[in-house]
## 1
Amino acid sequence: MGLIASVIEKAGIPTVSISLLREVTEKVRPPRSLCVPFPIGYPFGKPNDAHLQMHVIRQALALLESDGPLPMIEDFRPVQQATTESA
Amino acid sequence: MATLHDLKLSHRLFLQAYPFRHVDWSPGAQLKKRLQDATLTLISTAGLYLPEQTPFNHDIRSGDCSFREIPVETNIQDLLIGHPSPAFDKAGALEDRNLVFPLDRLRELVELGEIGGLSRRHFSFMGGIIAPGRLIKETAPEVAAKLEEDHVDAVLLAPA
């Protein structure tokens, strides 16, 4: 997947990749990666957890707007759960 | 985070010894618009395909380098999962395809105004391609050309 990202980036379109295996990402070195703390098969967190999936996507897309040096390998920051939904 | 230690010994030894290829993409591309104005494309390597499309070919020992186009209007729960690796636990993705291909979430982000829009087609490859020569020279550049054709501003890629 990192290779596909690299080819697209080379063609001039910025990419960001979700990474489940940092060790592999550090070898392939695609331009921007968000390393997520989930098992293989679960890149966006949990099934039917739109809230968590959305946070993964938002943190990944934020790397596209970052000015940091490339390659960029960031860790997913877990989201604080709201303490109570209602009073 | 999964680490190589979570994998079966055979997979781990393979990945530790495997000479990963690197494609030189430097200096990197820039997002030319703000995200809220940008058109995005999603690319998965979970081997997803639609029932009417040709399944990925598991008989190619070095890996099937082909790709499938997923139209933006696809009901993603219809997608079949062709990735054969036993390291990929498909249970979660079978329950909710957004786990590997979150097109529903991206549609919501468009509605929320956080991204500008989605391209008319998205893409799926097979993961775990052992001999990626054809992927690098042929099929990934083909997708890059389609992205240019669709005026895509940025791409989100996800593994299985």
## 2
Amino acid sequence: MNPAFLDFIEFSLSGLSVGALYALTGIGFVVVYKATRIINFAIGEFMMIGAYFFFGLAAQAALPNWAAIILALIAAGTVGGFLERLIFRRLIGESAISVFMVTIGLASIMVGLVEIAWTADPRSLPTFLPDKPFFVPLGSAEAFLASKNGWSFIIVAAIMAAFITVFRFWRGGIALRATAADQQAAYSVGINVPGVFSFAWILGAITAAAAGILVGSISGISSAMGAIGLSVIVVVIVGGLDSLAGALVGGLMIGWLESMASLYIGGEYKQVATFVILLLVLVVKPYGLFGTRDIERL
Amino acid sequence: MRIGSAKQTYAADEAIFKTNVQRAWFGALVALLILFPFVSSDYWQLLACLIAVNVIAATGLMILTGFTGLVSLGHAAFMGVGAYTAAYLSNHFALPFWLTIPAGGFAAAAVGAIFGIPSLRVKGLYLALTTIAASFILQSIFFNWTAVTGGARGLTIEPASIFGNALVTPGAIYWIAMPIAALTIWWARNLLRTRVGRAFVAIRDRDVSAELLGIDLLRYKLMSFALASFYAGMAGAVWVYLFRVITPESFRLIESIFFVAAIIVGGLGSVRGAIFGAVFMTLVPELLKIGASDLAPYWPDAVKLLSPVRTIVFGALIVGFLMFEPLGLNEICQRTRQRFALWPFRT
């Protein structure tokens, strides 16, 4: 087996598993955007607080991992719901840019609070994933995939499947899609639109927190881990802001491309490569691969 | 609105100073700015220079975001372009500061116009994200084009000199920074009374209508980007002479966010807002630092908490102003003036 080809396969696998986490976080973003048209720039910080809640409950309060995960997700969802109720609901009707800047401000506040509670030092999360690495048979050789990456890929796939089912069949999911399609019409058929907004924020925060716990268990946590949010924003722009399928495809694509960039150009160009792709996509297809085109009327 | 100041000509309506009281206050401000370096310590002079730099950059961003309605999160990176240009010209061609500072502005304007091109295709939040891309791409160039930028280690630069005297202290740089700040504010204020400025405002309010009125969107949007970047580049060049050392770390995304926050806190849509915002946002972290060192003897944790508290206050100012005072400090100032002007009547 050609070693260069083996490298390519191994980097592809780890890129795709990172991409799956981007996709999961991207879904947390898209749910909020679909329902409320808010660009949540604090998505990386929602991941961060999820991971820190898990750290606090599992490592500091010494709860069993499964209980810590559930409580951390509930706590993150509560934060999301509170923020929607206290801040974003009051900003309905404000210009999109103002709301976007509010999320930037919130990101800053969350980083500061985490640094006060847990300091800025990097920490590692207690392991809860099995640590037997995956070997993908490949002709005469085997491609190596770290256990955490492999398992997080599997977990993400399961969460995605649950999401698609919920959106397709459950009443709440249908209400969310109806609100996304037309708010006025949703109101007039009796959908509780403010309730949908709250639900979207709670769901978005929980999804981001789940992704944050997985990312943290792979590469550790720190108060700067919200920077991943930038890659996630690129993912959802490339995929189309209001498309769940777009977040999935965009996530896997950007994860894979970043991995390829660090294999062939060098790790320091990873983020630049992502942003060059973003610029190209915006110039060629401004609404992303699967996004809905806005039509403007005077 | 003042009582008894009915305007009878358009010239009177467009005048910058409408009453003698305003002229008197302005004169007092100029006198204060001239006297300031003679009565203050090095620390406050450095802070004044920093404020001047931030005022120049914030005024530029105000033209782009406050008047043309195009949000840019790459402003600090354009500042970096100006800074590196000035440093390069000074180190390799030994040009004097009065040439390198405008040169920094022009270089940044050229780069800004290039990154402004996507604004023709995308707007609003999508544009904000393309400018983030610009910020990261420029950042990577600063890091990797070692021949010009010195890479991660950065550059050092000879102090600016005038008639053979090196301007080393912040008190000396003040005489470069403050006049440039005054000049750029004066340009910005006058720009808005011309056709170009009104075209910017028309684009902000509704770009489709503006185009129907015969405003060439391509030309004016790029002009706005170039102008804003020109201001940023000048600010960056002055910044280089102030610190005389420059690394890519100085022009990160967070600095760009700082400028957007400054103009929001100051009040979008007025030059005065840019000034208020830049002054306020530069002073707040310093005041927190002073407060923390004053508290330190009684409460040892104060210094350790300084950095997270600064981060929180920065975010809280953005959120708080957007929620409770969307027109910013400028609006507070106007309201206060109104109250005094109309006293004893209720406003």
## 3
Amino acid sequence: MKTKKQDMASIIKSVTKMVSDKKAVRSYIKGNTDLKTIDKKGIKFARPI
Amino acid sequence: MLDPYNYFFNENTGTYQFTTKNNIVYSVAFIVDDTLNSVSTSSFEIKNVYQVIIDKVSNEVEPLDPRVYSTVDKLISDFFKNVENAMIYICSDSDGKELKRFKTFNRWYNNSLHKEIITKVDNTFKISSDESTYYTALLFHIDNPNVKYILKSFKNIETKLTTDN
């Protein structure tokens, strides 16, 4: 299986995006952010249950 | 544990919801999370990873209601009926309330009826650029066939940040 290299900058970017996505969704739940904004951020709601 | 509240999927909001005896509405959102793939050093594609976000719809302060814990426990155990599902919970210490929520989430896990089948791995790391500490937890079913890749990728976050710092 092929392996890929990851640098620190890309990992930091991924982690900070997670936190930023969470903040956006919390704001959405509270009614302070609309679905269009969530979509623009590339956040996808799922129905895993 | 007490009886959980009934929850349902709200098609309009894209979240699961339940209402407590005090008429407080909770939303539970699962969002597709590609972090483990983006930090992975393997070409194996990790699927079914979600970030979970649990919050009240309103800002009302609710008296302690143990049935909320039971409901979250039920919801998460239902989530793991698909053993390939995995869940990430994250917060940073830049917001004191976030850290409180993380501790609450940990308390749920410690009291969960499903600890024997759901494994939780914590990972705490600091990012020097914003001087924040990040608290993360990865949850997966003990029978998850992709656990090797999931765990390696999750641990890669801490390893890489520690090594390169």
